[in-house]
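re: that chain from earlier
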Amino acid sequence: MRVGNEQPFLFFPEGLDVRWRSFAAVAEQAAGGRRALEALGLHQASAPSPGEPGAVAYAWAGGLHGADAVAADLAIRSGGWTAAPVPAPADLSGASPLRPPEHAARLLLPWEAGSTAGRVADQAADGAERGDSGPLVAHLPSAARELGRRPGPHPSGGSSGDLPPCPGGALIREAASGAEEPGGGWCFVSSEALREAAEDLGRALGPAEPAPGAGRPVVVAWLDPSLAEGRVLLEWAITTRAALYLESDRRVLGGAAAWVRPTVVAGDALALAAVAAKMRRPDTRRSRLARRLLGSAPRPPFGRLRWAVILGADDLADEDRALFDASGVVLVRPRLGAGQPG
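^ sequence. v structure.
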């Protein structure tokens, strides 16, 4: 099934509403970020280690800012640089407990404009070289197209194209059990290794070509692409052109999944525990109201759910694993090298 470029790609909560951004809008924003990075003249001096492309760090935040973060990742990797996502604090204030790789450049997201980091970034970007004021920094432009707005002309003068190919790799980190504290540093992963891992995950999540009428994957996820499993899931969602809802709070992933009715949920053990808890306590009030208005009960909130992707080192609680198994939900744990059953 071919998914057009104007179809929704990334979904994210905004207050009590849900917004989305199309493949074309994300591609356009990523192209603007790539041009901003090219203007810095990045070269091997920004490399995480000799022989690897220059590293560019950016703040990863799900929810409202998740679409910008994905566009930043595509901007970096499509230019051949190495993406280094640094998880932002939950309240987007203060500094992340994880430090960016040494000598990495920075790509600031729109929400960071006006912050202390943004002011330092402006000073650093004025010069051609890194100075005492900080790393080389570029700014990701705001998305030009959102839901309800007609697409404008593509910057090149033609029509919008597909998401860009990404020859650049990524940096991932090791995390302690619980995934709350940074582990022992960064590790480079090539684009080829990421593609292979995404293909393995895709085989675990069903056929590459869905059955007629089955539609594309609908994914509700709390993920961290600075960890191996989250990086593989994001790569798979991009290459399969899935519909991806990015939640910023793992504790409410169950509520988001009940509302979206996905085919795939993904998160660490805590996030999937929230999904399991919601499956045990469905919202019967909505069912009674729908039966009164429509004469029949609506489809169960988790009636389409087929896979739960475990992200992170921790395993599920026995009762949560048993619930997913009894509900016909297949547990999968992505790995760099193989997508294996959870």
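The longest helix spans residues 23-38.
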